[in-house]
Design goal:
This protein has about 750 residues and is an alpha/beta fold. The chain has three domains: about 65-195, Chitobiase/beta-hexosaminidase domain 2-like (Chitobiase, domain 2, 2-Layer Sandwich); about 200-525, Alpha-Beta Barrel (TIM Barrel); about 560-605 and about 645-740, Alpha-glucuronidase, C-terminal domain (Alpha-d-glucuronidase, C-terminal Domain). The protein is built from 23 helices and 16 strands. The protein has helices at about 25-45, 65-75, 85-100, 125-130, 135-140, 165-180, 235-245, 265-280, 295, 310-325, 350-360, 385-390, 450-460, 470-475, 510-520, 525-535, 540-565, 595, 620-630, 640, 655-680, 685-720, 735-740, and strands at about 75-80, 105-110, 115-120, 145-150, 160-165, 190-195, 200-205, 250, 285-290, 330-335, 365-370, 400-405, 430-435, 490-495, 605, 645. Strands 7-8-9-10-11-12-13-14 form an eight-stranded parallel beta barrel. A six-stranded mixed sheet has the order 2-1-3-5-4-6. The protein starts with about 20 loop residues before the first helix and ends in a 14-residue tail after the last helix.
Length: about 750
């Protein structure tokens, strides 16, 4: 029998001791009781504990008998005749998946027979696939796409075909097929032709070499650097499987606050070991490059990108990397940002630095992802404007294999932000959208916050830079690319760690899943992605699907309401970013809360119109006109762009102060409603996950009141207005909240 690769099979009694007199009866009694529990559990429909390790690749038997029977009739055999490593892992996944879902173990055969089956392979590798394709199939699937189609076979038993132009395309197609089975689809009439809309779909791991994870809330780093390359953890393969199952094809292993040691020979051997595991799953390895590496590990006296010795050092280092990892993807670079070294240290531009590295990578097909997250405390300009001011004038000066990687908003992964003005403003430069899957400003892995709706708002935002309909998704897709490099990129800061369930919160894996699905196809709806994930992770039961999907869809708006409603931003606690801190006013100004909310007796909000910082003018005039008009600006961005009086009338009929208070209360009430919903699902899932989520939701409800009470107590000192009816009265006075201290919050870069 083929074992599920996600299940760690261990004997019930791993250690056998000699049975002395008097022990035999006790042993038999214990064994009888154990068997009775197992039989009772199986017979009574008791749901076994699930620790979340399998995530959404749970290949448990299908509940629907008719669906199981229909697929069993199809899956009478697996037809595969190729030795391509990716095709082989696709076959293994198919056998494991359908074997678990259907409870069968069909044979593997090289040819199609009259008994039906599942045929998988590449167009060039199996003539039985080539003859079944339609004339335009190959043109529609590109290098990573696939065809999943049902054909009538000789004796009426259907044949399901998974075909692609590459082995990795076959693997993606198999995962798509298994997704259909897991979510309740029947095998008849399948006709799916699909390919990714964004070429490079990558996870950014902010993992340090000591295995701490900056802004990581799910344990330590997955990469066991001290044990590599000698010991290869089984988790590496399972990580690659999970990435491939949603189409993620690149992984940046190390923190953007980079350590040059990762580029040394001993560590490159470790990187190569990971790359070998990831390769069959189509996941290419990238590394962060510290700009000062030529000095720190190369012995040079400078890292000036225009110095020939520096350029030569990087070329030799890149050659060394490719000897270890022939399909190495390239570098991710954070330079001249938050104290990191960069080309500006030598009077050079970002383009000078990026191009020097790009030239070293170009002969191997490698790319440079150069982050646009730059700002400086000594610059008097509004922090939201600095990246645009530095990068937009450089449009057209970057090499073709350079991507400028831009966060979704201009500050820093806030609970809600308008799209970054750089998108669409650099038409001659490749751009990468950087999203944050880990919840740095959204309650870590304690609070439920399904982020797909926020990401979708950004992807669908119309920059209008090349006319109406120039969405962020179209900008990063790079559909006009005609050279040999990948046509577009998207990156997500990972939320994975060594916690058994990968992401800490049992529901946080929905964000990893959703990132991959939206990276593959930005046109998907957050609702449909949420439903897929729920069905694959929990159940196809209608009550579970509807209840959990609704909770997921309500979660991000609720968190925004009780943390930073109406465009408020950066009012979290200092350093660890967990909990409220609207009173923070010490240190460099652009790291304080008061810099952003600017609350005073007259009102609240950051004026970014022409009368204020002028940041709104960095957008296309049509977009700028919308944001600059307080009466037309979407509510969720009102205080981002405007300093508004406390009595400003809102569309709801409330004045601004009452609206802020009621938004905070609405967030608290929404989280509170989930407790009853989740409690009602107790009998529909295993007790282990149900109890874990219930405890986290209970804490989230308590901490949502903390946010409400602390923020409203503080802002009330400026508004001098009473709380409107229906808003909870703070449990403590303002000084109590100001004096609260959290210590050793996971993921914090510096000791607290």
């Amino acid at each position: 029998m083929k074992l599920n690769p996600f299940v760690h099979h261990k004997p019930i009694f791993p250690t056998v001791y000699p049975l002395r007199s008097g022990m035999v009866c006790r042993f038999l009694t214990q064994l009888t009781c154990l068997l009775a529990v197992v039989v009772c559990g199986l017979g009574c429909g008791v749901l076994r504990a699930d620790d979340g390790y399998r995530a959404w690749l749970r290949y448990d038997p299908l509940d629907q008998l008719s669906q199981r029977q229909a697929w069993t009739a199809v899956a009478s055999g697996y037809i595969c005749r190729e030795d391509d490593p990716s095709v082989q892992v696709a076959l293994e996944e198919l056998m494991s998946g359908l074997g678990g879902l259907l409870g069968i173990e069909p044979e593997v055969r090289p040819e199609v027979s009259g008994s039906g089956g599942v045929l998988i392979g590449t167009i060039d590798g199996n003539p039985e696939i080539a003859v079944r394709l339609r004339p335009d199939d190959a043109d529609q699937i590109g290098s990573e796409g696939y065809v999943v189609r049902t054909y009538a076979n000789g004796n009426g038993k259907p044949l399901v075909m998974v075909a692609a132009r590459s082995g990795i395309g076959v693997l993606y197609g198999v995962f798509d097929l298994l997704r259909q089975v897991q979510t309740g689809v029947y095998p008849y009439g399948l006709d799916r032709v699909d390919q990714p809309k964004i070429g490079l779909r990558m996870l950014n791991h902010w993992d340090n070499l000591n295995r701490t994870v900056e802004r990581g809330y799910a344990g330590f780093s997955l990469w066991e650097w001290f044990e590599l390359p000698d010991y290869i953890s089984p988790r590496y393969r399972d990580y690659a499987r999970l990435c491939a199952s949603v189409g993620i094809n690149a992984s940046v292993l190390t923190n953007v606050n980079a350590n040059a040691v990762i580029l040394t020979e001993p560590y490159l051997e470790k990187v190569a070991a990971l790359a070998d595991v990831f390769r069959p799953y189509g996941v290419r390895v990238y590394l962060t490059a510290r700009f000062s590496a030529p000095m720190e590990i190369g012995g040079l006296e400078t890292a000036d990108p225009l110095d020939p010795q520096v350029a030569g050092w990087w070329k030799q280092k890149v050659e060394e990397i490719y000897r270890h990892v022939p399909d190495f993807g390239g570098f991710l670079v954070k330079a001249n940002s938050e104290g990191q070294p960069g080309p500006q240290d030598y009077g050079r531009s970002h383009a000078d630095g990026a191009n020097m590295m790009a030239d070293a990578l170009a002969p191997y097909g490698g790319t440079v992802m150069w982050r646009a997250f730059v700002y400086a405390a000594e610059v008097e300009m509004d922090r939201a404007m600095q990246a645009y001011a530095e990068f937009q004038p450089l449009d057209g000066t970057f090499r073709p294999n350079v991507f400028v990687q831009i966060k979704n908003g201009a500050i820093d992964f806030m609970p809600t932000e308008p799209f970054h003005p750089l998108f669409g403003a650099m038409p001659k430069t490749r751009q990468t959208l950087e999203l944050q899957i880990t919840q740095e400003y959204l309650g870590a892995s304690i609070h439920l916050a399904y982020l797909a709706p926020m990401w979708k708002q950004c992807l669908d935002a119309d920059t209008r830079m090349a006319g109406a309909g120039t969405t962020v998704a179209k900008v990063i897709a790079g559909s006009n690319s005609a050279d040999g490099y990948l046509p577009g990129a998207i990156a997500g800061v990972a939320n994975t760690g060594t916690n058994r369930n990968w992401t800490g919160h049992p529901l946080a894996a929905a964000n990893w899943y959703a990132f991959g699905r939206l990276a593959w196809n930005p046109d998907l709806s957050p609702e449909s992605v949420a439903e897929e994930w729920v069905r694959m992770t929990f159940s196809n039961d209608a009550s579970v699907v509807e209840s959990l999907r609704q909770m997921l869809m309500e979660s991000h708006p609720a968190v925004v309401d009780y943390m930073m409603p109406l465009g408020l931003h950066h009012i979290m606690a200092w350093d660890h970013h967990y909990g409220p801190g609207p009173w923070i006013d010490q240190g460099r100004p652009d790291w304080t809360a008061v810099y952003y909310h600017k609350a005073d007796k007259d009102g609240i909000g950051f004026d970014r119109t022409a009368s204020g910082s002028g940041a709104v003018q960095q957008y296309h005039p049509d977009v700028a006109g919308l944001f600059a008009d307080a009466n037309a600006c979407p509510d969720r961005y009102l205080l981002w762009f405007h300093h508004m009086p406390w009595d400003h009338p809102m569309p709801s009929g409330n004045n601004l102060w009452d609206e802020i208070c009621l938004r905070y209360q609405r967030g608290v009430d929404t989280v509170g409603s989930w407790l009853e919903v989740w409690s009602g699902l107790k009998d529909s899932m295993d007790a282990q996950r149900h109890d874990h989520v219930m405890r986290l939701l209970t804490r989230q409800e308590r901490e949502s009141r903390w946010w409400r009470d602390a923020c409203l107590s503080y802002f009330q000192t400026f508004s001098n207005r009473p709380l409107p009816e229906g808003v909870g009265v703070p449990e403590h006075d303002l000084e109590y909240y100001r004096n609260l201290r959290l210590r050793y919050v996971p993921g914090t870069p510096s000791e607290q």
